[in-house]
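re: ur question from earlier - yeah i can do the single chain one, its not a big deal. heres the input i used so u can compare w yours
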Amino acid sequence: MNAKRTKMLVKICLLAVLTLVVINQVSGRACEKRRYGHSSFVCICNSTYCDDADFSPPKNSNVINIYTSDKDSWRFNYTSVAKNSDVNEVDDRDVTIVMYKDTHYQSIKGFGGALTDSASINMKSLSNSSRKNLLNSYFSSSGIEYNLVRVPMASCDYSTREYTYLDTKDDYNLTSFALEPEDLKYKIPLLKEIFSIAHSKLSLYASPWTAPAWMKTNNNEIGRGKLIGKPGNKYHKTWAQYFIKFFESYKQQGINFWGFTVQNEPSNGRLIKSTWQSTGMSGEEQRDFIKSDLGPALKQSSFKDLKMMILDDQRLFMPSFIEKVCNDPDAAQYVAGIGVHWYWNWLIPPSVMQSTHQKFPDIFMLATEACNKNAPSDNLGSWEDGVKYSNDILDVLNNWGVGWVDWNMCLSLQGGPNWANNFDNSPIIVNATGDEFYKQPMFYHMGHFSKFIKEGDHHIHATANDNTDLKFVVTKSSSGCYTLVILSTSDSPKVISVQNDKEQFKFTIPAHSIQTLTWI
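and the output i got, formated as tokens:
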């Protein structure tokens, strides 16, 4: 072994020791591990015990706080290093991150998940104490502090049946419009429970999957079909009022929304013959529906300040879908944001979000849905499923996205219930029989962002060596708190040097890990 390599290995070992000297500011409970024969482990929670993330914000200006989760051992393990530590000895194999604190990009909205019928049913299948631990894990100050919740408008595939709120044929006056048991017994009580424990200010957004079958060309909630006729007619007017009635009905129950998407995956039911609820809509059709029906209906209601998001579909359709809607000023006046899904990401790079931002800089982009398309039983405890989340979150944040929202907050061991048998995975898996739930690596990958990057923080410019395969993002709060989230898929630890104006520090990122660093 040559002298240079020996020196490098000694440096890594010494720095690793430095990094792992724990300053015990963490009063939280540790993960109770269980392995299911996959690449990592889950953390078990029940009615009496659950690990938490009860961390103090940075207080000492000379200390860099480091929280680490890795494939083999740790979940939010706390360590620290001092500023200006060992910075004069830079090896050409070190990774150097240079921050430009005065170059700001987008303001962050936040992170969260969806409260579907299925997620609600799973939450309600637990005892009160276990359910409280689950909700605390997501929303409380001792949890990962989600601040965004997506709520389907009526049923979707993650329901136990097909339904809308207006299934009475030809009811153009919406006299029969009514919330369903799934809302009144499950979602609304759970939302009230969430609001009561949430540490961050919550923002809810709604998404419709289908119009009532009698309003659609195929007279069916599923399959290939769209609203009958053209925007401006009685079907489109009624569908626009359906949105207003939904928001009114939830408001009467004490639940207010921040925004909504015009249609979940409008390509589903148009380009694709869907096997669950959908309403097909082209860019032109969405444009005309917004400017002729939905926009004016909102403007005349008490919900005119809700944030309207278009697309809510794959980034493959960017920027063309956005151009079709927002190049028309009569439609664009109502549009606040763009919803983006991740399912066809291999077809187009994340840089399409940058080009879309350049064309429409005043319209925010939010990742509104993502999930791993595998049943929990096949991958329970998979580290790689979490890495997929972090990879995409980093791509979104580094390309002008303002946040990232997961799909179902929890599912059963089967990955349901799902009436269409479209079973997926989730960060939390509920075992109702055992009155326990399992926090998968996905949960902790989400938490490395949602716990530390807050609404109103700004993404700031940072660069690294050209030869690094590490992915990272840096944000800064209005109070001057910095957050660095960094992901390593390397088989070996790496030494990182961070330069922030006159401040510098070094740390080691372990193999196959994600770290969040905070400092002031």
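Residues 234-252 form the longest helix (19 residues). not sure if urs matches, ping me
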